[in-house]
């Protein structure tokens, strides 16, 4: 494991709030996208008779949302983790302090729930419709074991991509784009197996608002394990060098609480 980097001391409330706001925005976008194509009363639904085509549109919408958030001023400031599993993995790699990791995870869980609540206020009964179903992540017809393996696999591959691209001098600026492509492909092709979560906070936000907790444990266990596995594989396969910063897109013009660089400001 790499040695810890110099970090700004104290609590970093603006970064915590941004993490919450980013995942809340992502969840609102997810609810709107699913309602737009899956709700039978939507004008788009009759035009999209095939389930894979509807998933591909949802995937594209969510991939673009992720890319926009990662490269936004919010994402470049906080690092755009938006996922407790990712934050936990960066902590394991020594790239984020225990205090910041804890606050990030709390912020992400808060943001996931708030995002679905806001979407419920915007969409009303549409979000509760059986075809939208609060955008719950649920195991597919193949069962829980397949869903678990799928969540483990997609999480590991995502983390491997993040570390490999962010450590490559020519590719590091495109890490967020690659993440968006992965999300698009995962929703299009993997969602029938596990619902495509990769994110405990995202799954809990939907479950709390729906009041349905079927197989929720799966999304608390498989994504963190998958990302930790991906990090372990990366560090073993690469002789030297780890993720230089716990941001998906490091911008030297903005404060970085992970490597104590960028614009100055109060913690």
Explain what this protein looks like in three dimensions:
α1 runs parallel beside α5 (98-123) and α2 (51-71) packs antiparallel against α8. This protein has one domain (13-237): Glycerol uptake facilitator protein (Up-down Bundle), CATH 1.20.1080. By secondary structure, it is mostly helical. The chain has helices spanning 13-38, 51-71, 73-78, 84-92, 98-123, 125-128, 144-166, 175-194, 200-210, 216-237. The chain is globular and about 50 Å long. The protein is 63% helix and 0% strand. The chain is built from ten helices and no strands.
CATH-level-4 superfamily name? Glycerol uptake facilitator protein
* Coarse structural class: mainly alpha
The value of Rg in angstroms is: 18 Å
**Mean pLDDT reading:** 91
Question: What is the domain total for the residues?
Answer: 1
Anisotropy-based shape: globular
Q: Calculate the terminal CA-CA distance, rounded to whole Å.
A: 27 Å
CATH architecture: Up-down Bundle
SS summary, helix count: 10
Provide the CATH topology.
Glycerol uptake facilitator protein
What is the strand tally? Answer: 0
Largest pleated sheet: none
Order of helices and strands: HHHHHHHHHH
Q: Strand content of the residues, in percent? A: under 5%
